[in-house]
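User: Second chain of the day. Same drill as before.
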Amino acid sequence: MERNKVNKRQWILVIAVGFIAGALGIGAASYQFRTTVAEDAAVETFLQQELRSPEGEIHPSSTWRGKILVLNFWAPWCPPCVEEMPELVRVQEQYRSKNVLFVGIGVDSPTNLRQFLVKTPVNYPIVLGGLEGSNWAKSLGNPSSGLPFTVVIDEKGSIKKVKLGKISEDELSSWLNALIITSK
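Assistant: Same format as last time:
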């Protein structure tokens, strides 16, 4: 009987320690993968870039000024990035006529991006991020450089929303609807 009490106490202690360790782990991960407030100067710096598609086509980002921009940092080896792409395609199609432009910033080699895009075509520009893409993501509010990472910028060049992790069609649509309403 005394032995059962000891075993119960030990199990309760083990479970309590497990819960505490789990809570600390979740807290640490939330802190490490948080987004930060980026300054609009980071947008201006980004819009001064001359970017290339995986095929080598030049995309002067200065032509994107005056549009609502949805920048999506992604990679073909990132499962949540690949999962959200069909939703991004649908939302881009829905908002194209409303001065909204999606731009995918691929964080991989041109060859890997080209091969992926043959199998999964998109209706918005894809540009090479390369090593500089990680710096852009950090300056736009993603200190961990995690993927996927989405940034919504208004027509004036101000960052309005950022999301680290997979974004849903509904969430993105609600952000864009709010921006479109306030810009009228």
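DSSP finds six helices and seven strands in the chain.

User: Great, on to the next one.
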